[in-house]
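Subgroup meeting minutes
Present: P.N., E.W., G.H.
Scribe: E.W.

1. P.N. recapped why we're keeping a running log of single-chain structure predictions: easier to compare across weeks, and new members can see raw inputs and outputs side by side.
2. G.H. added today's entry (149 aa).
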Amino acid sequence: MTLVKFNPAREFFKEGFWPKESNSIFDTFFNENLGKFERNVFFTPRTDVKETETQFEVHLALPGLKKEEINIEIEKDVLTVSGERKMKQENKDEKFHMVENFYGKFSRSFTLPENVDASKIEASIADGILNVNIPKAEVKQNKTSVVIK
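Output recorded in log:
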């Protein structure tokens, strides 16, 4: 059985559209060189952002990471989640036939809206999902009436 890595660009470079030699060059470049580089240098965790009546919820997929390996900072109304996911190599004689997980440093930044209380932000991690709860603050209306004379 031969495993073929899924390549969404393959549909674009169908036979007949490009010569076969070009397809081979693109497949080699995208599947071998770039893929190995991306997996070992950086990755971008998949993120969901949800708004409720009382808070914003940010959910980041960080499988295999412990809370000690994740850093959360707030600076000038920007929430940044960063860290590094390292590939565990227990035995140097192991030979991988396929590596589809991403490893390396990551960083995601989110601009906070004006109506949040940054001092009450809480985070927890469970089952590989980092949950960041950002409570909303009451926006005070600076509305005044002007009397016409």
